[in-house]
Amino acid sequence: MITFENQVFHAQTANTSYLIRVHDAGYLEHLYYGGKIRRASCYDALFEKIAAGYGNTITAPTDSKLTLDNLCMEYSFAATGDYRHAPLCLQMPDFGYSHDFRYRSHMIYEGTYSENGQTKMPFAKDCVQDGQSGEAGIATLDITLKDTVYPVYLHLIYTFFEQSDVITRRVKIENQCEKDICISKIMSLMMDLPDKDYNLHTFDGLWVKERHENKKALVSGLYINDSTTGSSSNRHNPFIMLSKENCTEDSGECIGVNLIYSGNHYEAVEVSGYGKVRVMTGINPFQFAWTLGNNDAFYTPEAVLSYSREGYNGLSHNMHSFISHHIISPDWAQRPRPILINNWEATYFDFSDAKLLKIAREAKSLGMEMLVLDDGWFGNRSDDTTSLGDWKANEKKLGGTLKKLAEKINKLGLQFGLWFEPEMISEKSDLFQKHPDWAVRAPDREAYPGRNQLVLDLTRQKYVIISYLPLQKCWKVRR
Fold first, then answer.
1. Nearest-5° angle of CA 467, CA 473, CA 477?
2. Is 257 helix (H, G, I), strand (E, B) or coil?
3. Counting CB atoms within 10 angstroms of each CB, which of 375, 449, 452, 471 has the fewest?
4. DSSP of 321-354, one letter per residue?
5. Which neighbouring-strand residues pair with 144?
6. pTM attached to this predicted model
7. From the CA atom positions of the chain, what is the Rg in Å?
8. Is 253 exposed, middle or buried (0-12, 13-18, 19+ CB in 10 A)?
9. pLDDT (tens digit, 9 = 90+) per residue, 39-93?
């Protein structure tokens, strides 16, 4: 699935090939990503040809004709003559921002990334189907680069999911200096494409009008798709797509990029003066700073990359296969979701156990399989100004305990689901009155609530325990 011969990595999925060259100077040159091609002992036809030097450019110290400003690269570095949009910003131990990482070594092995469990990030899993885990055709390539001055190491990590025609990428950076380094930007994925004949598709919107497709032809310049809301957001979806001009639903070439991450994201697409396209995605660098001490490591979120020459539908099939087999929880992988009814539109905050059971009986008669109890079941929550954070059932409204209500719903032959919003807090709540410092807010500054609520500081270690009670088929939250 992944070979390394004559300084070229050639990785294949069912229908695609991905080729990387270890350049003589130690840089990683992106050679090819597209429809599957045969393995060969020589790929010289794909190498960047430099017949003469470029005017007004910075050349590499190892080659007076080589400028990184026009080389298709796998990852780019500061102060090396590449003036395109950079994926990495590091303040090194000398307080400067110059860094230059070159190839050092690599590992190829079967399965997903061996350090997934250490990343503290969500990640793609082995295939789960019919209760069995593991899938043939998953392989990982871990390429280690080292800075030319300091013992700082960068790992470019690729996992190839053969059956889904998907590649995931992430970056790990290790600091083995005695002094700290500071990261202010680090992308999970960067890839340079040799031509600009693409349209860029983004999916933008707002509340209740999410994911409106916007398509624009790429011309010289920089395009940004991002979120600074603290979440991936309904404003700009982290999925972007590049398509050739003749791409349709069922034919033509397109490339999809996504990010397995629910925080601030950042996608950049740049068309260079030489007509090449640089694509990247990762954590949004807006107000991002991470100090990396001696022997510390930082892992980026995992990015998703897929190519189709069968149009948008082909790309959609790749992504759906990948998500179904490698992202969705094993509890639900390859299983149909229950048909559910949610009481919100029927009752809003004004409900009782009698109203809920009436809805449940009607839902059962129509073939539904689950009732989800929405907002208003806890604290003194009779409107949206109060009680978030007071996750104690309002037994007066429910006509008894939450367990009792769940058992009644189950007795009617329906599963029971429960809405809650553990990351939010109301200023009108017992929790806020006792612990106002648990809300995320700037000290000594007036808070700006959204929908009458603030965000709870989930980084605290001891304010809440969430446990699942299988017999009650509901969630219980206790402090």
1. 30
2. strand
3. 471
4. HHHHHHTS-TTTTTSPPPPEEESHHHHTT---HH
5. 105, 155
6. 0.90
7. 26
8. buried
9. 998 999 999 887 766 777 777 777 767 788 889 999 999 888 899 999 999 999 9
φ and ψ of 379, to 5 deg = 50, -140
Would you say the C-alpha torsion 126, 129, 133, 134 has a positive or negative sign? negative
Reduced to 3 DSSP states, what percent helix, strand and coil does the chain have, rounded to the nearest 5? 15, 40, 50
Percent of the chain with pLDDT over 90: 79
Task: Annotate 35-78 with three-state secondary structure.
Answer: ECCCCCCCCHHHCCCCCCCCCCCCCECCECCCCHHHCCECCCCC
Whether 252 and 244 have beta carbons less than 8 Å apart is answered as yes
Residue 255 near residue 225, CB atoms below 8 Å:
no
The residue written with tokens 């003589």 in the block is 24
Residue closest to 164 by CA, chosen among 383, 301, 365, 328: 328
Q: Are 192 and 69 in contact (CB under 8 A)?
A: no
Half-sphere exposure of 80 (CA within 13 A, CB side): 28
Q: Which CATH superfamily is domain 2-326 in?
A: alpha-galactosidase from lactobacil brevis (2.70.98.60)
Cα(4)–Cα(29) distance, rounded to whole angstroms?
14
Q: Are strands 415-418 and 370-373 parallel, antiparallel or unpaired?
A: parallel
Q: How distant, in Å, are the alpha carbons of 15, 27, 91, 371 from that of 186?
A: 30, 18, 12, 43
Domain ranges of the chain: 2-326, 340-478
**DSSP three-state, residue 3:** strand
Segment 320-332, tens digit of pLDDT: 999 999 999 888 8
Q: How far is residue 237 CA from its own chain's centroid?
A: 11
CATH 3.20.20.70 fits 340-478, yes or no: yes
